[in-house]
Amino acid sequence: MAKVLVSDSIDPVGVEILSQVAQVDVKTGLSAEEIIQIIPEYDALMLRSSTRVTKEIVEAGSKLQIIGRAGVGVDNIDVPAATRQGIIVVNSPEGNTIAAAEHALAMMLSLSRHIPDANQSVKANKWERNRFIGTEVYKKNLGVVGLGKIGSHVAKVARSLGMKILAYDPFISKERADQLGCTLVDLELLFAESDFITLHVPKTSETQHLIGRETLAKMKPTVRIINCSRGGIIDELALIEALESGRIAGAALDVFEQEPLGESRLRELSNVILTPHLGASTTEAQVGVAVDVAEQIRDVLLGLPARSAVNIPGLTPDVMEKLRPYLQLAETMGNLVSQLAGGRCDSLNVRLQGELATKDSQPLVVAAIKGLLSQALRERVNYVNAAIEAKERGIRVIETRDASTRDYSGSIHLEANGSMGTHSVTGALLSTGEIRITDLDEFPINVPPSNHMLFTLHQDMPGIIGKIGALLGSFNVNIASMQVGRKIIRGDAVMALSLDDPLPEGLLSEITKVPGIRDAYTVKL
Ligand SMILES: NC(=O)c1ccc[n+]([C@@H]2O[C@H](COP(=O)([O-])OP(=O)(O)OC[C@H]3O[C@@H](n4cnc5c(N)ncnc54)[C@H](O)[C@@H]3O)[C@@H](O)[C@H]2O)c1
Ligand SMILES: O=C(O)[C@H](O)COP(=O)(O)O
């Protein structure tokens, strides 16, 4: 019989479901070393946010088929390590949405009416009516950073409280924001105009310390900040300084840079409310996430596909085998075109060409959407949810098939319209299986994708390539390869450069100042 280790406390209904197919051991509070010792016995691991699944744990889990996160965030799991080892990682993307949104709203209202302090004061036999004068949220501006599942629900409820919602989410279309009654603004404006700011973004390199010394300085002195997303999105030290100096009025935090929260001046501040990562802690959410994840573990142990795998496509093994190299091609092209188009895409045209122009190749469309959304949703987007996520974001996906295109055996052409205009790319596979970008904005090129890329649209004229090379050199950026594509001599052209180093801040705008350069784009793949 299969064995499942449950390493954090989950609702008993989850254990019941798992027990249908496996021996279930619930062992909470284990250290990493203790887990490493016992994990070789287990076929599945189920956890919440308290267990940190490190690379060492994953590598020790020689029998592990699946890791199930009874919740949303998988940032406590080394997903790349699990993927490399062929372990499916599943989560419950929606099971605790309402709970987390309601917690953020409760934090906002508690903060505005001093409820925790007033409660303590009455319990200490005091009656301090003048000490706890609050602020109304009615007609105030609420800045929502991240208008995904939780952010959208917060926005909906806050609107019914009479608040005006300013939202920032570079991956949400204006139409979707309009539907939710939110005004889509840039971060500068959100920081400057908000009376309350609530964070609902994943933790990524872009969102790490999104709220820090510099951004806090741009806010109103009366602003109150709520974080029920992830620790580390706020620079805690900068927040403490801002709260101590009265630079901002208050904060309510459910998540912390280090959990459990250790020694911290946050505990001493009267204008702060702290909860111990309780966003998902409702009876309803815990039943929801436990059922959602336990069912997926049960199914995978029975040899069936998982519905919310964050790392393995939910495709049948034979289709998967046939399309495997093209799935990677479609995903890379989707990621590339989303960055060229500027993220906030409202349409994606997918043209499957040559021998890919068949019905069986439908998963390639999903792979292209997954790539398109990967900048916004990271590991949250998978083959199962990519199409739904695109629909919810108001992205129109148009598929066409053209069997007559014969320049490679099969190629994928994508065109996306986003905040930086309409851009297109075509990609194909060489007989060796290597990916080539064969077309950029209708200009023929032939370059392999690489981690750091620079693309320019320029006028074909003598000296321009040298100038770009010299400029990159002066910033110590090494060029790995370079190619120019043009249709006519001295007409418009594109340049595609693979770089060994990321482009330093400010260099892109220098490049666009070079005479003859019309546009320049930097891309990370
Ligand atoms: N406190 C808790 O107990 C608790 C419970 C559930 C979820 N969470 C956390 O809440 C967060 C949001 O969860 P969700 O289910 O709404 O996720 P989601 O994926 O539905 O939404 C996240 C949104 O953030 C946007 N985004 C990504 N990068 C951005 C950036 N740089 N700037 C602005 N927006 C950006 C995405 O476009 C997306 O719309 C996650 O971090 C999740 O782990 C916490
Ligand atoms: O990402 C999540 O789902 C939340 O942070 C909830 O975490 P928890 O399951 O440990 O309460």
TrEMBL record:
Q: What class of enzyme is it?
A: oxidoreductase
Query: Pfam families, from UniProt?
Result: 2-Hacid_dh (PF00389), 2-Hacid_dh_C (PF02826), ACT (PF01842), PGDH_inter (PF19304)
Identify the residues that the record assigns to the ACT domain, covering every copy.
Answer: 453-525
GO MF entry, a single one:
NAD binding
Gene Ontology BP annotations: L-serine biosynthetic process
Q: What is its EC number?
A: 1.1.1.95
* Pathway(s) the chain acts in: Amino-acid biosynthesis; L-serine biosynthesis; L-serine from 3-phospho-D-glycerate: step 1/3
Please give the family membership noted in the entry: Belongs to the D-isomer specific 2-hydroxyacid dehydrogenase family.
Please give the function described in this protein's UniProt entry.
Answer: Catalyzes the reversible oxidation of 3-phospho-D-glycerate to 3-phosphonooxypyruvate, the first step of the phosphorylated L-serine biosynthesis pathway. Also catalyzes the reversible oxidation of 2-hydroxyglutarate to 2-oxoglutarate.
Q: Which NCBIfam families match?
A: PGDH
This chain's protein is named: D-3-phosphoglycerate dehydrogenase
What is the species of this protein?
A: Microcystis panniformis FACHB-1757
